[in-house]
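Researcher: Please predict.
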Amino acid sequence: MAKHAEKLRVVIVGAGFCGLTAAIECQLRGMHPILVEAYAGASSHGDLLDFVPNAGRVFDSWANGRVGEALLAAGVNRAKTLDFYNQDNVMLRSDPWPQGIDLKGTFAGHRGAMHEIVYNYAKELGIEMHFNSRVEKYFDSDDEHGVIIAGTGKKILGDVVLACDGPKSLARSQLLGLPESRVNSGYAIFRAFFELTEEMLQDPFMAELTKKDEDTTRFWVGEDMHGFIYTWNQGRDCAWVLTHLDDADIQESWSFPAKKEDVRTYLKQAKFPEVWSRVLDLTPEDRMVDYKLVWRDPLTTWLSPAKHSAVMGDAAHCHLPTSANGACQAVEDAATIAICLEKSQGDVPLALQIFERIRFNRSHVIHQASISTRNIYHKNNWTPEMVEKNPGSLVMPLLEWVVDFDCQKNAEDNYDRLAKEVISGKTGTIEELSLPAGGNYDCMNLTEEDNKAAALQKTVPL
């Protein structure tokens, strides 16, 4: 590694999975990452989160596999199948659960528990981290690159600034000069995570969902609604997520305490089965959240004009959950940028332009597909006969080109060629200059006679 690459100070805003991964990968490659986070420490909040091998292999590479082993042990690792049901509680299909077939790099479980594992590894590595430090200003001039902390006015300088500051990204406006562009997607999520008591386990519906020697993963789909229920940890933990049509005004806040009466209303409208009502009854109301799904229009660039700063993760491509790969794409961003910074030998603008060209089309296609996948789920009358006729449609959108992908090898293999194109000034749109996405979602499309999405679509125009 070139000496001046080792000296790079990398200011990273946001200690979610994107920011933590970027900090860890930069630290492992000899740079000096500086992580800045508004919250007090590792997040204990959240419900379900999944990583598949395109991101999981990055975690597996750390500490001789120790981090991956910890994530596996903490999650839903003893399920055998993911079972799909319609609103009448009729089973539509049953697919192997990835961890049940020992697929390396696949992790699913409580978001907070998984975040703490990654945070603890960053702490173990001695990464410089500033918590309780909310960024109020980004700056990126020819002379200085960094952030100013609210309240104290403290200035943190670096050679490069990576804004992993989420869907509410301040960097989008201050670094990229973009207006606020959040759009209500027309949908929201009720979500919950709670520990099961012995009394809860006596309920017949919950007893059927829990097993001491096997985790349970189930998915229900109906018009304008779909949901998951997971139970794991020897039947002690339960989480559920319910995505539903919603037209609430989200200008002030995106996340609210959820009310059981509201969830019941949506369950009744969608005619979801009794198991959902019973699980809702057992859920402590203070463990429920009503989270409004906000869509972000795709960006034309992720880089500041001075090209010493970049937005990444949800700040660059805010996926709807139906992509089933949003967190994974953030990890791909983080692992890729570290390689580009290392290989650039201190030339930050070169590194960031190559990073963008490696990641842009792939993340864009997966980002955009989250809408079409949601419509496939919500706008069709699912029956066993329809699933049999269209076996590739009612699936998690985890196609081989998405999952079986090594983002680090991809960056290593393509860096030199893209560097030559950047240095030579090759012209074209960002889509033309970037690597191909690697695939598409055509196999999930329904035939015209079966596809009701166009006639039934009720989403808010984008």
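Model: The chain has a mean pLDDT of 90.
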